[in-house]
Amino acid sequence: MSSPRFNPAAYDTQLADKAARLRELLAPFAAPEPEVFDSPREHYRLRAEFRLWREGEQRHYAMFEQGDKHTPILIEDFPIASLRINELMPRLKAAWAEPALGHKLFQVEFLTTLAGDALITLCYHRPVDAAWEAAAQKLAAELGVSLVGRSRGKRVVVGRDYVNEELTVAGRTFRYRQPEGAFTQPNGEVCRKMLNWAFDALGERQDDLLELYCGNGNFTLPLATRVRKVLATEISKTSVNAALANLADNAVDNVTLVRLSAEELTQALNEVRPFRRLADVDLKSYDFGSVFVDPPRAGMDPDTCELTRRFERILYISCNPETLAQNIAQLHDTHKVTRSALFDQFPYTHHMEAGVLLERR
Questions:
Q1: Within this chain, do residues 14 and 64 fall inside the same structural domain, yes or no?
Q2: Is 123 a catalytic residue?
Q3: For this structure, is 353 an active site residue?
Q4: pLDDT digits over 237-257, tens only?
Q5: Nearest CA to 232 among 207, 265, 193?
Q6: Where is S-adenosyl-L-methionine annotated to bind (predicted)?
């Protein structure tokens, strides 16, 4: 990611501009005033990725503006990143002096949690070998982290290849495994606000929930406590494995998770073709009243969007309000927006997360 224009003094104005933009996008649908959920002004980002840039004999953490790979922004500290990342950065940098750790190291990735866990991925232009692993084990113990070494075709894990997170929703704390290399929400405090908003918006239901794009079960865990049972889908194998572990760790037993894309599940529900991964799932046993979607930036494809029209309630979290508005336009003749929200996941950038509840007219 490119470096945000960090300016806490301008935060309130920027947030007001985002809220105005969301109102404008939702205005054609007579949406209610969005609830606005702000972010901490600093130390909010739980993930960070840096390239390494050499100047003389010194190497520095570096980032680049989008589209420019030749003009580095040298980083000594990173106030948008978590305190844990900032604490680890200089200690890791000092460890580069060890040849087994620093030789041909070109990229560093930090993954931390509100619960205090941390994992660092080190990427190399040479094989990670036994000497690297011995040095990494010592460093991991000194820093109190897990380490992952990556080189072409090889990955070596020292400790765990995931971090543990804890998020409290409506008074209950859920535990999450967040794998290295998989998608997780970058702003933990805002993620917690999103989960609580979605939990409240869905309400207590006596029927079933379909969830598309479930990831590692971020929303699945709390929403499953609001309904009779859940059918959830996700295409990423890493995320599916994490979600299954998270369901077990939290003793959530009313969720069936299937590794299918949203498009494939749409075909299955429309009886276009069968899928072996659904062989043991009785789709007709579900009494779906609600669907929850958290799609990628492109939004829902037209067929999946059309599928959601069948449901009384569509709970939609979006990382791209423009495609959210396009999807609402397709559904507007049968569903109305009854709640809307802005979640400022990405302060000091133009990006924002939005949520809407659509209910049948």
A1: no
A2: no
A3: yes
A4: 999 999 999 999 999 999 999
A5: 265
A6: 185, 213, 218, 234, 294
